[in-house]
Amino acid sequence: MPEKIDFSKVSFLIVESNPLSAQLVRDILNALGATAIRMADSVERARKMLRRDPVDVIITEYHLSPENGLALIDWVRNDSESSDRMIPIIMLTANSEEDYVVRARDMGVTEFLAKPFNVEGLYRRLVAVITRPRAFVSADSYFGPDRRRRQVPFRGSDRRSTDD
Amino acid sequence: MARRAKIIPPRADLKKKAVNFTTGLDLRLTPELVRRLEKVVHDSRDRFTKDIGERLAVMRRQLLEGSTDPEEQRALVLRVYESSLEIKGAGGTIGYDLLTQIGKSLNDFVYGLAGLDAKQTRVVGLHIDALYVVLANRITGRGGVIESAIVQAFGEARRKFRGGEGDEEHDDDEERGRA
Lengths: 164, 179
Known about the structure:
The complex is a heterodimer.
Chain A: E1 4-5, E2 11-15, H1 19-31, E3 36-40, H2 43-52, E4 57-60, H3 69-78, E5 89-93, H4 98-107, E6 111-114, H5 119-131, E7 136-138, E8 143-145
Parallel strand pairs in A: 2-3, 2-4, 4-5, 5-6
Antiparallel strand pairs in A: 7-8
Helix pairs in contact in A: 2-3
Chain B: E1 6-8, H1 13-18, E2 19-20, E3 25-26, H2 31-43, H3 45-65, H4 70-93, H5 97-110, H6 118-136, H7 145-161
């Protein structure tokens, strides 16, 4: 029997300053069966909500004011007040150039989805963060999901000495 | 001395909570679910086009006012930057890929500017006109040969009227549109 995902068991926080975009993501989550959905239009409001009542998944825009989405990721991953440093975070943003992706990744984002987006892309990422949780790395300068996503086979000759 | 990186195994609590064999949705999208989700997006289309129309009207009005006050110029560039970013993000989501292309072109054009000289004002105005045309004629998708030529021409205008800075797509975040 194939596995199923029950979105009614998952709580979400959408952090987005454009009310239309926030509502669209909310409507999509509702259509998937999610009911526990909260929305914040700034990083500060998101922090307040998370301190009061943690969620299972955060979906955040990059372009927020006065603080941007990276500040939220930084707070979740590194601040002592963060209620859960390992919450999956999906960044959904029109700031889609490579540099933004790299910065978000290095701050500890779990998944990145560029706007304009399609429903398949969003669904895949939601399923990924819930069903395929990633290992985390805790180091001096980084706390977040393991950034190694691909297993690339080594093609050269084996130069390691044997153990015996 | 730097400590060694510690690997924390994946946490399974969320998966345990949400994944089962009886209730919910298939992990793989079914055509029926895609249709249902696309309907949600489609239903939002009018709200987005109305919002984009209003943003264009405000940008055009501020552009026509043509204030030379540095603070107002900065505010104008910031508004154009933010509105064009929203248009870039929303256009393709609701099926208007051409809005995304022109919105991105406009966003790249104003990125990092502190104000607009006469020629830059004209280029911004042309972007706004083109966005209006796409909306008014409900040109979904990427359009045709003419639309493609227009997008290309905007790219050339960016290279010419940004004095070379616009050759590369912007990659800075904090000061975008706020220089």
